[in-house]
Design a protein that fits this description.
Elements lengths: L11 E2 L1 H8 L3 H8 L7 E4 L2 E5 H10 L4
Antiparallel strand pairs: 1-3, 2-3
Length: about 60
């Protein structure tokens, strides 16, 4: 039995989940997370995950993206 965990309780989000969660487009999230200095991206092999708490903090501080 697979239990669905709400997005706001997950530590890491897929790019699709991050887009739905934040209202920011998939391409913009990919563009931001391609930067080697990106504070909220976690690479697991070729899979890109978004660290939800750091992503929230990034959005909170950002004036424009």
């Amino acid at each position: 039995m697979k239990r669905e965990i709400p997005v706001w309780e997950k530590a890491n989000l897929t790019v699709e989940e991050a887009a739905a969660y934040s209202g920011i487009g998939l391409n913009k999230i990919r563009e931001l997370s391609n930067d080697e200095q990106c504070p909220f991206v976690l690479w697991v092999g070729n899979k890109r995950l978004i660290k939800r708490k750091k992503f929230d903090a990034y959005i909170e501080k950002a004036y424009s993206i």
